[in-house]
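Reviewers asked in the last cycle whether our approach scales beyond single polypeptides. To address this, we selected a multi-component target totalling 389 residues and predicted its structure end to end. The input consisted of the following lines:
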Amino acid sequence: MADERDRRDRSDRPALRVVRGGASGPSRPHSTPLDTMTDEALLAAFLVGDDDAFGDLVQRHERLVLSLVRRYARTPEDARDLAQRTFLRAFEAARRTLRSDTRQPFPFRRWIIRVALNLAKNHLRDELRVPRAPLEALGAAEATPAVQGDALEHAQLARRMRSAVVELPRRQREVLTLRIDAELPFAEIAQSLGITENAAKVTFHHATRNLRAALSEELSP
Amino acid sequence: MSACRDLELLVSLGAAGALSPEESVRLDAHLAGCAACRADFEASAKALGLARMPPPSRAEQRLVAELPERMIEEVRRGDRRRGLGRRFVLAASIAAVFAVALLLPARLGVREGVEPRAVQEAGTGGSAQTELATAATPGSTSTWQEPDIDSVWQETDLVDFADDTDTQ
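The resulting structure, written as structure tokens, was:
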């Protein structure tokens, strides 16, 4: 679901500018469209100098990564930096794997999910250690214009609920955000976290219950 | 919370829109006849709706659009840095090998009993300063001569102790 949406979005974007000094000779046949290449093939092409291949790889997964990290970011720049660090770490791991054994397959998408969740967890820990401004939605002033009355009340409730999400136990938070932010199916959530699909569903159920309990008064009809 | 405990999980998953078509049909049929579960479903759906992040702002979209280019620059910069680092390590290794090659024979010579140049000069009649240096050098005891005790006494005898006692 998320993949299809990513592909649609990519078609609307301008073409990538090739960075000077990067391309020293593409190994990818010119007839092979980047969209049909696997993550491994794109990385291999980038390692021999094809910058477009890596640009396409980042575009392929950027929405997923951003959806996972932006909940923990204070500013859009913060979110972008977290996303960039996620890609860089996953890329370094993939590069090491490719260098050690080019035939060994690696689940790049699963790696970036794991890296994004770990970075988000560390970022959250650091933020709690050094408290800053209250958790605001990213670009809230721009995304949600000035609101009044019921809309204001709803916005405040949403903010409190997002704070409650951050305070959930780690596993519950991960499953919940993978579902409601990244919109991943439970089978993929389970695979990414190394648990069974049923365990992922039960964890999600507990997370939902905990969120409801956190705002029980406000949510009661 | 739910009236029907065996359907709690289904209600939560349904509120998240994560049910298969068959499961959805089953849940809808139940919700149609169970007000408690319907209320439960609505509360879960409301909680999840509030927990969702708002859509990305224009600022976020703009910054994310820069991501591929920034990433490529970052990776290439890292590669260049690593290349420089490797060259530096190689140069330092070569310099270390040369240094060892130059210093090792000199150190081996000392261990085998080759005397330092100062000792050799003292042995062949060098200056008094050289002799002092020689006396302080470990391993040069063979060239040290015991001073004559009478001449040492005569030199110390120049001090007049009698004058000191008078003044006191």
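The radius of gyration of chain B is 48 Å. We regard this as preliminary and will revisit it once experimental data from Aim 1 are available.
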